[in-house]
Amino acid sequence: MTDPEPLLAWYATLTPHTVARAGEFYAADAQFRDPFNDVRGVAAIEAIFRHMFVHTEEPRFVIGERIVQGDQAFVTWLFVFRLRGVPYQIAGGSHLRFNQDGLVVVHRDYWDAAEELLAKLPLIGAPIRWLRSRFRVPMPD
């Protein structure tokens, strides 16, 4: 059974200086995918997190529940950050697959970009909220 705890501790304490430790947790050809990125390799994964620190203020991950089975894990998390001083939270989950050395070979993040991020932004949020209200099924009282 794979132990995801060292990886999760790294995420929970991630800083611009510790991004370079990704190679301790990810295989050289690991795939990372989220709603905005689909990359391979440790350098590309590090680039995503460096980008995060440049474009968000005070980003951090709050790790939640974990389910581990064999060489796989699913972890829930909150991504907490600020944009131009405004606080945001994104709730999501990550499916992780590990190789025989305990390194991540596949990391797939699942979160709803429209609900968790875009609908909360000032300019593009209103049309997204309107669309969601149009497609929402009305429930009887």
UniProtKB/TrEMBL annotation:
Listed transmembrane segments: none
Stretches assigned to the SnoaL-like domain: 9-107
Coiled coil residues, start to end: none
Superkingdom assignment: Bacteria
The protein, known as: Nuclear transport factor 2 family protein
